[in-house]
Amino acid sequence: MAAPGTIRLTTATHRLAAGLVEVRSLGPIVVKGLTDPLEAVELIGAGPTRNRLEASARRGLTPLVGRETELTLLHQIVDRADRSQGQVAALVGEAGIGKSRLVWELTRTPRLSNWLRLTGRSQSYSTGTPYLPVVEILKGYFGIEASHDVVAIRSRITEKLLSRDEALAPAVVPVLALLDVPSGNAEWQTLDPLSRQQRTLEAIKKILLQESREHPLLLIVEDLHWVASTNLSSWRTCPTN
Q1: Are residues 72 and 147 in the same domain?
Q2: Contact, 21 vs 47, CB < 8 A?
Q3: Whether the Cβ atoms of residue 231 and residue 130 lie closer than 8 Å to each other
Q4: 108 and 41, same structural domain?
Q5: Does the N terminus or the C terminus of the chain have fewer Cβ atoms within 10 A?
Q6: Nearest-CA neighbor of 174 among 146, 148, 195?
Q7: 169 CB contacts (<8 Å, ≥6 apart)?
Q8: How does DSSP classify residue 230?
């Protein structure tokens, strides 16, 4: 019943993804074999929220109970980082125990009002792509949207890095490559994979360290366990781990 290139959902299915997708109502639709019409919607695209917690937050979250100790510890870590003492915190627990909610509460504390906050997420299907969370972090940093074409992406990356510090110029090509944007750099094409990896990690480090010198920086990597253990070695020289 859907026209070519479109997706239709019942309202029951839409409720399962409420807040995560944008839809257009189609009203009641008569379906062959069913007595009563079905309410249906057409899928337009991804919504503004990134996960179910954000979608729930838009509707209103219930009060957080019983996590005072964990929040206090996270606040202490933030305070130390705010005094230029770099910190790493790992939240570990069973699915549904509230790890994402703790991060949500932390990022909305007044302590972080002047911080730059960047988030990346690993996925179950990304075990062979250790850079995926970093790609998301960089897209957030450069303000890259799905609607941006390669010209807009190249312009955003180049202008922002050079406006921050001319010393970041060597980071432009590795970042473009990481985001699958052609750079036209002949030297980059001749590099072996290991050299490209080293230059990419160095570029990421320089960008994030430069930002941290100007204001406190919080990097959040969700579901890091989906990054295959064989690929974690490439993160050891990168501050986003």
Answers
A1: no
A2: yes
A3: yes
A4: no
A5: N
A6: 195
A7: 161, 162
A8: G
Q: Within 13 Å and on the Cβ side, how many CA atoms surround 68? A: 2
Domains contained in the chain, number: 3
Angle, vertex CA 78, rays to CA 135 and CA 123, nearest 5 = 30
Per-residue pLDDT of the chain (241 residues; tens, 9 = 90+): 888 999 999 988 988 887 788 899 999 989 888 899 989 999 998 876 666 677 666 667 778 888 899 999 999 999 999 988 999 999 988 888 888 888 888 888 888 888 999 988 887 776 666 688 889 899 999 999 878 899 999 999 999 999 989 999 999 999 999 999 998 899 999 999 999 999 999 999 999 999 998 889 999 988 887 775 545 555 554 443 3
Range of the domain at 12: 8-46
Do 81 and 28 belong to one domain? no
**Number of Cβ atoms within 10 Å of the Cβ of 76:** 11
Residues 197 and 158 in one domain: yes
**Residue 187 lies inside a defined structural domain of this protein:** yes
Tell me, yes or no, whether 151 and 82 share the same domain: no
CA max distance for the chain: 69
Q: Is this model's pTM higher than 0.70 or not? A: yes
182 shares a domain with 139: yes
Q: How far is CA 122 from CA 22, 119, 127, 140, 187, in A?
A: 23, 10, 8, 15, 31
| Structure tokens belonging to residue 63 | 């009060």
Those residues with Cβ within 8 angstroms of residue 218's Cβ, 6 or more apart along the chain or in another chain: 78, 81, 107, 112, 115, 116, 117, 118
